[in-house]
Every structure is written in structure tokens, then in C-alpha cells.
Amino acid sequence: MKRGGGGMRISYRALGPQDLGALSDIVGHWEVVRQLGSFPWPADPVFNATRAQAYQGDGFVWAILRDGGMVGTVAVTGDELGYMLHPGQWRQGIGRRAVGAALAEAFGRLGRGRIVADVWADNAASLGVLAGFGFVRVRDEVVMSKARGVPTASCRLELTRTAWEAHGIP
């Protein structure tokens, strides 16, 4: 699937073993991993290899490609959205595009009634991206961050199909 514009060629495909090097590069950055819920710090090559596999569950995990090279991932597994980008790609609209594509797939082809996202409370960028799509905060809690190694404030956000449709596809 391809989506582009603004001089960038952005496309998506299923994440797989061929993406291990790029995935390892992305999660080799503290500023990325500190915002993820499941990746350890320091980066663990064995753990990374378990993540660079074709997803076999309910939903999808896509590699985000910019001009053919992997720059991040976006996923909807069950009813949960997750994404990450290489820090060199931040603040360029790529994350917003990827989230939009994932939501369109989830509410469209997959027929989801709602999507949730868990975000660390100090991740202003992701909170802003999700608010732009109409996500609303439904719960705050403190949970253990695997990478940070300390209990961390977390927000659960939710977007229903009805709110998505009312918001309009960005």
C-alpha cells in the first residue's frame, strides 16, 4: 500500500525478518525505546529478532517505508494501536500519516468498533498525534516501564468507529 505527497514516498508492508537491521537501528535509540511499552533497554538483539517477524495474530504489523527504506513500524494488534519512528524521521508528518493509514485499515477492512492506545504521559508528541485523530483519554494509571525500569504515568486513549467517522478521515 502506498501513500505519499509532500515529496515523500511513504508505503507500508508487513514487517518481517528482512527488517531486523532497520528495527534494531530504530530501537537502538534511547529516545525511541523510552516511549515503548515492551522493548528493553539496552536493546536486546534476541528480543529484536522476535519482533522482526511476520505477525500471525489478529490485526497487522507494518513496516513504514520512506523512499523504500524502513523508518518505523505501525500496528493494530487486537484493538490496540502502536507505532515507532526513527528519530531522524520525527516532526515530518510520517507518524501522522502512518497512524491515519493504520486507523483506516482497522476501521475499514478489519471492521474494528474501537481502537485504544497506551501512551506515556510525558510523550507529548504522540498524545498530540492521537488527539488530532479524535482519540480521547479514558484512563490514567502508573505502570512499570520495561525500558525505564521505574513506574511511569501512562494514559489510555480510545477512538470509536463513530468518532472516527464523525471526525472524517484526515
Which descriptors would you attach to this protein?
170 residues; alpha+beta; Aminopeptidase; three-stranded antiparallel beta sheet; 6 helices; 28% helix
Question: What is this structure, in a nutshell?
Answer:
The protein has helices at residues 20-26, 30-33, 45-51, 94-107, 124-132, 161-167; strands at 2-5, 8-14, 59-66, 69-77, 80-85, 114-120, 136-144, 151-160. It is α+β, with helices and mostly antiparallel strands.
Question: Would you give an account of this structure?
Answer:
- By secondary structure, this protein is of the alpha+beta class.
- It has a single domain (2-167), classed as Aminopeptidase.
- It is built from six helices and eight strands.
- The protein has helices at 20-26, 30-33, 45-51, 94-107, 124-132, 161-167; strands at residues 2-5, 8-14, 59-66, 69-77, 80-85, 114-120, 136-144, 151-160.
- The strands form two sheets. It has a five-stranded antiparallel sheet, with helices on both faces. A three-stranded antiparallel sheet has the order 6-8-7.
- The longest helix is centred in the middle third of the chain and has 14 residues, at 94-107.
- The relative contact order is 0.16.
